[in-house]
Amino acid sequence: MAGRIPRTFIDDLITRVDIVDLIDNYVSLRKSGRNYTALCPFHNEKTPSFTVSSDKQFYYCFGCGAHGTAITFLMNYAHLNFPSHQNPHIRCQRQT
Ligand SMILES: [Zn+2]
What we know:
Bound molecules: zinc ion
Number of helices: 4
Structural class: alpha+beta
Number of domains: 1
Low-confidence stretches: none
Cofactor: Zn(2+)
InterPro entries: DNA_primase_Znf_CHC2 (IPR036977), DnaG_primase (IPR050219), Znf_CHC2 (IPR002694)
Helix content: 25-40%
Shape: globular
Domain Zinc finger CHC2-type: 36-90
CATH topology: DNA Primase, Chain A
Distance between the termini: 31 Å
Mean pLDDT: 84
Keywords: DNA replication, DNA-binding, DNA-directed RNA polymerase, Magnesium, Metal-binding, Nucleotidyltransferase, Primosome, Transcription, Transferase, Zinc, Zinc-finger
Number of strands: 5
Protein name: DNA Primase
């Protein structure tokens, strides 16, 4: 099934990928000073509190506290689309 991502692959990816380019594929970033801002993909909001730092290759959300590197973003973003994550049946089974 889903295998582990090799550590070397991750290191390689981090050194090659610009976090701004990567995240810009998923959410529309706007340049704001030295950083980029966007509406956070991890919680609902109307004003952008999701910040991406090109210098630090790091993202941070002032609204929900989500933060991490390019890899963290990819993994967290993938979880958003994970079907069992929000499956109500799982909750029902636990209420016994
Ligand atoms: Zn957020």
